[in-house]
Amino acid sequence: MNILLTGGTGFIGSHAHAALRKAGYQVHLFKGDITKVDDWLTNLNSKIDIVIHIAGVRTEGKRDFAVNTGGATSLSQALAKIDHQPQAIIFISTQAVYFGLTPPFTENMQPKPPTAYGQSKLKAEEIILQLGKKHNLRHCRKRRVKGACEKIR
User: Fold this and answer.
1) How far is CA 75 from its chain centroid?
2) Which one in 4, 39, 72, 96 has a CA-CA gap of 20 to 30 Å to 86?
């Protein structure tokens, strides 16, 4: 099974990359800019069975929308242009979409994140969920992730 992985050199993505390879998957790291449709088209070749979209940024500014929302938009536009469709798309979002709400968080809540990062990821979710009508879609809202090899800033 061939997997296209975005964000494969980041903290979460590098761990996902190692685990997927160890499990025997053929992992193709996304090359290029996730906000460019042409780069998605280059990466989405006929070998790709699953897309795992982890890449994103958190700057709490306009760049969050350009990368997080823009990346989801470009993926959607690229998928509309190709004949060979992946069997599944897995999108990794964030619990930041729940910021401003009182825990415990549930999927039935109506998120209204007050931060640019949360807003950009929620908008990306909405774009990705539209793909779910045509694709086997999975998405998750991760909690804060910590562990070995975490970059300390």
Assistant:
1) 10
2) 96
pLDDT mean by block of 10 residues, the chain; 153 residues: 96 93 97 98 93 94 96 95 91 90 87 95 91 65 53 48
Sequence-ordered strand ranges (E) for the chain:
2-6, 26-29, 50-53, 88-94, 136-142
Residue 46 token pair: 């006929």
Instruction: Tokens 């300390």: give the residue.
Output: 152
